[in-house]
Design a protein that fits this description.
Elements lengths: L4 E6 L2 E2 L6 H20 L2 E9 L3 H9 L4 H18 L6 E4 L3 H16 L3 E11 L4 E3 L17 E10 L5 H10 L4 E2 L1 H12 L6 E2 L1 E2 L15 E2 L1 H6 L1 H4 L10 H6 L4 E5 L3 H14 L8 E4 L2 E3 L2 E2 L10 H8 L1 H11 L6 E3 L1 H31 L11 H22 L3 H22 L1 H6 L3 H22 L4 H10 L38
Parallel strand pairs: 1-3, 1-12, 2-3, 3-4, 8-13, 12-13, 14-16
Antiparallel strand pairs: 5-6, 5-7, 7-9, 10-11, 14-15
Helix pairs in contact: 2-3, 6-10, 11-12, 12-13, 13-15, 13-17, 14-15, 14-17, 15-17, 17-18
This protein binds ligand ME8.
Ligand ME8 binds next to strand 2, helix 1, helix 7 and strand 12.
Length: about 500
């Protein structure tokens, strides 16, 4: 297990503005997976970052009276700040304006030109500036850009083209032979039926109409198309070099998962495989196009004015409450919804009631009955087995859900432990045991609860790391590894617990 590696990446966010809660969802989702894999003992490499070139950014910078570099420096720093606020454990935060990336992209472009996959031609088409995409007449919807619904303009320019058409059959076969390559399945079918099977045209991979991009090394009036620039981030930043790929590259590539939003599956499952084949490289193992987060059931847009930002939510509710909502409320394949009201409902019902109360009540009872010392006894009843069964079967269920990328379900299985504990308190009624001076039974019941909370907190740690940390501190234990939850009953007897502190204080009424 020690040598097993796991490379997970997110999309690199456009530095066109502050990331909204939808963009933030992706990074938190990736973080939970990365943390879980680390907990399981994998060597993990988790890469994220920013996508900084293109006409749209050049225009925005000019509007703000800044150079493109000044502009992207600010926004990239802001994106990183938000990822950090969300407690995201990335290993590398990459930028497409980094020298190492730019040089590697130039070499990649040259290699594709030398091997005949890139050639010079003439581009005529309908161009959508905000999306940086050329469209054909048939792709338009009501004469407008099919992605954003805005006007497109007729454009013609000398351009380099990538022979995408050459890879059509290979791609179709690959996707059909590797049913797990694109997930969820609905996205795979969409790619095959709507895009690949109808035919792939060669792709325009250079622009001359603006400057803010990576120069084509042998023809300086061209800059490299942003998607060729952006997609290669997954290899350039782990040391890919066309002549001499580094050991780091050999170690990590192919990536295990590219986690991206549903809108950019097309770029990752069509362009990216073809680019990689052109370089004679393996494909990533999986591309997962997650659904979107809506705000009040409407698409969130940086430009729509309905954006909710993670830092505002964290300030109000705390980082783990926001992580919980994002991880729990967005289903595997359908869009999720966010409102302040829903968030507060979840906060109160799950975090304050089910988890917070349980921990507080249990540690308080231990304080009251046993002076904060962990005790145990030989008492044993059927009800104990039922609790222990639920607790001990959770791990396998969580693992399976994580592997299937069903993160919301995984988190639900963790909460099954806490729910079962609450039920166990109702069933065993420790206060009656105390009143009846049934000390042996009381010791067992409280011990079982403390140990179940510890095991639950280990499984919870990839999702809500800060909360788990607090619980371990209250339990005064360092038993937080995956190994430590293989058996029930490891929590050390005789130790003194710390005083309980409320983990989540109920929200009475929203000010929003
Ligand atoms: O697409 N809910 O960058 P980006 C969930 N630079 N996810 C959302 C979302 C929402 N409401 N809105 C956007 C780009 N996303 C490119 C990527 S990768 C080589 C280049 C997701 O800043 C979106 O699907 O527009 C994408 O995966 C990520 O946020 C960044 O979006």
């Amino acid at each position: 297990m020690e040598n097993k590696k796991f490379y997970i990446s997110t999309a690199i966010a456009y530095t066109s503005g502050k990331p909204h809660i939808g963009n933030t969802y992706e990074i938190v989702l990736a973080d939970a997976i990365a943390r879980f894999k680390r907990l399981e003992g994998y060597q993990v490499y988790f890469q994220t970052g920013t996508d900084e070139h293109g006409e749209k950014i050049e225009i925005k910078a000019t509007e703000e009276g800044k150079t493109p570099k000044e502009f992207v420096d600010e926004i990239s720093a802001e994106i990183k700040r938000i990822w950090d606020i969300m407690n995201v454990s990335y290993d590398k935060f990459v930028r497409t304006t980094d020298d190492i990336h730019k040089k590697a992209v130039q070499k990649i472009f040259k290699k594709m030109y030398d091997n005949g996959d890139i050639y010079l031609g003439q581009y005529k088409g309908l161009y959508c500036t905000p999306c940086e995409s050329f469209w054909t007449e048939t792709q338009l919807i009501d004469g407008k850009c099919p992605d954003c619904g805005r006007e497109v303009t007729e454009s013609s320019e000398e351009a380099y083209f990538f022979r995408l058409s050459k890879y059509q059959e290979k791609l179709e076969k690959y996707i059909e032979d590797h049913p797990d390559f694109i997930q969820p399945e609905s996205r795979k079918n969409e790619m095959l039926n709507n895009f690949i099977k109808p035919g792939l045209q060669d792709l325009c991979v250079s622009r001359t109409s603006f400057d803010w991009g990576i120069e084509v090394p042998f023809d300086k009036k061209h800059v490299v198309y942003v998607w060729l620039d952006a997609l290669t981030n997954y290899i350039t930043n782990i040391g890919y070099d066309v002549d001499n790929p580094s050991d780091e590259f050999k170690k990590w590539w192919p990536a295990d998962i590219h986690l991206i939003g549903k809108d950019i599956v097309r770029f990752h499952s069509i362009y990216w495989p073809a680019f990689l084949w052109s370089l004679n490289l393996e494909l990533p193992k999986k591309i997962f196009g997650h659904p979107w987060l809506l705000s009040n059931n409407d698409k969130i847009g940086k430009s729509r004015g309905n954006a909710i930002y993670a830092d505002d939510l964290v300030e109000k509710y705390g980082v783990d409450a926001v992580r919980y909502y994002l991880l729990h409320e967005i289903p595997y394949a359908n869009d999720g919804n966010l409102t302040y009201e829903l968030l507060e409902e979840r906060y109160n019902s799950d975090l304050a009631n089910i988890l917070g109360n349980l921990v507080n009540r249990t540690i308080s009872m231990n304080k009251k009955y046993f002076d904060n010392i962990v005790v145990n006894s030989d008492s044993k009843e059927e009800i104990d087995d039922s609790l222990i069964n639920t607790v001990m079967s959770a791990k396998e269920k969580v693992e399976k859900c994580i592997d299937e990328l069903r993160i919301a379900d995984a988190l639900d299985h963790v909460f099954e432990i806490f729910r079962r504990c609450n039920k166990y308190i109702d069933e065993t009624m420790p206060w009656i045991l105390a009143k009846d001076e049934n000390k042996d039974r009381l010791k067992k019941v409280i011990y079982n609860l403390l140990e179940s909370i510890r095991i639950g907190s280990v499984l919870l740690s990839p999702f809500l790391p800060e909360t788990s940390e607090k619980i371990f501190k209250e339990l005064n234990t360092e038993l937080n590894s995956y190994d430590s939850i293989k058996e029930f009953g490891k929590l050390e007897i005789g130790k003194s617990l710390n005083n309980p502190e409320p983990l989540f204080i109920r929200i009475e009424k929203s000010a929003n």
